Amino acid sequence: MPQKREQRYTILVADDSEMNRSILRSMLEESYDIIEAEDGLQAVAVLQQREQEISLVLLDIVMPNLDGFGVLSAMNKYNWIDSVPVIMISAESTHTFIERAYDMGVTDYISRPFDMMVVRRRVINTIMLYAKQRRLAAMVNEQIYQKEKVNNLMISILSHIVEFRNEESGLHVLHIQTMTEILLKSLARKTDKYVLDRETINLISNASTLHDVGKICIPSEVLNKPGRFTNEEFAIMKQHSQMGADMMKGVPFQDEPLVKYAYEICRWHHERYDGRGYPDGLKGEEIPISAQVVALADVYDALTSTRVYKPAHSHEKALTMILNGECGTFQPLLLECLVESSDIIQQEMAVDTVTRGDQRIMENTAAELGQYEDLSATDRTLFILEQERTIHNFFASISPNILFRYTSTPPMLSLSPVGSQRLGLEETTVDPYHNKRVQELIDLDQLAELAQLLQGTTPENPVVEFDGSVLLDGRFKPVHIICRAMWSFEDPPQYTGAIGKVLETREEENR
């Protein structure tokens, strides 16, 4: 196994004196990579381009064009000071200068003339301290991400059991969750009548996936009957609301908000604003807002989805039917939210389960990280995650290639919508080792070889390229697979899976 290369940290030395820069370079270049800036403007330009690389700034105060305090102002403005420590080295030793420097975020202050050993020791201490903080922040990030992932996974497993028994596609619960979130966010913007902060919206959206859990208790001959119910059958079907609520009453942790919202949604998501719903005939604001929103989302998805008893209606047709009162009465304010969010609802409902699930996890991770005030650059973290989500969505939606993500524990292959369509898969998430269709698409020996190559990568060399053949568009075609192995933040890092794409190659290239 190749020996791990020792990490070299990068130091930016900003000083207008060539002699001072030369002295600091000769002292430190044996252990560190050095970047030099001749004035404050150059220092800011370097930070703009290479902030992620720089582990420390050694900064002079008196410089032309922009002095050291100007550099500190820029670092505070762009939040660089949160992740890049600064040691100020200057001949200015007055109390006023030193106090101002510390107030602006410098980690240490060294007066000239300086002792070489002191400079080296302070540089090492500062870099190691910030490196440790970054590792801790990464660990917290990973733990929060994994917590969100497990929470979503457990709720999805339970809700998909219902979908499986109900012989539906598995998309219904995700659609309800997505639309509930969209409507709640719209409602929060329109009124302060309800307490709808980020955490509450997240809880209600998660609880919405359990809205039909009571259907587990409904006989399958009723649950999956094609055509209209008889009065007796409809009376049996309506019992799922009460049964779901009874299940929620029986779970532990009754004080948890998630359980409270799940109970409300299970019991009352078939109530209607005019009192003509079931099981309790609640009217108007007697119906909790969580149940009102899920009721509207449930009706919309039922209209736009294929069922054993009906074809799918278009988005426009569904909106018309709801607004005309053909599906029962809903709160006027919620109907306004439905109309105003129409475009985003249509767009989000077209996003596959994997992408949307990952979006929610990333958003919740970023939001929870924002609660940790001692973690550096939380605002930037949230912005970067949101930006990456947008980029991922856009490229996944327009890419003609088969994009995929694989997790090793549990073994799960997630495909882009285009990928699942070209491979002839009904679902976008499958277990590659226990799915017969996947085993028909690619030879198991090829799959095992690719898995072995990925497991043999390292965090320093994570990319694998592989030539094989896959059943595409009904026939086997030569493909080139490019993967990047993913690794955990643990020490030592653990292989967790891979992301990649499948490129169709011309057959003549393989002759």
Structure, explained:
With 511 residues, this protein is of the alpha/beta class. The chain is built from 19 helices and eleven strands. Helix 6 runs antiparallel to helix 14 (342-349), helix 7 packs across helix 10 (257-268) and helix 9 (231-250) runs antiparallel to helix 10. The model is unreliable at 1-5, 372-391 and 507-511 (pLDDT under 50).
Give a nutshell description of this structure.
The chain is α/β, with parallel strands linked by helices and 511 residues long.
| Helical content (DSSP H or I, runs of 4+) | 40-55%
Judged by helices, strands and strand pairing, the structural class is alpha/beta
Report the C-alpha radius of gyration, rounded: 29 Å
Quaternary state, please? Answer: single chain
User: Main sheet: which strands, in order across?
Assistant: 8-7-6-11-10-9
Biggest sheet: strands, sense, closure? 6 strands, antiparallel
Q: Beta-strand level of the residues, as a percent range?
A: 5-15%
Low confidence ranges: 1-5, 372-391, 507-511
Number of strands: 11
Write the H/E string, N to C.
EHEHEHEHEHHHHHHHHHHHHEEHEHHEEE
List the main descriptive attributes of the protein structure presented here.
511 residues, alpha/beta, 51% helix, 14% strand, disordered N terminus, disordered C terminus
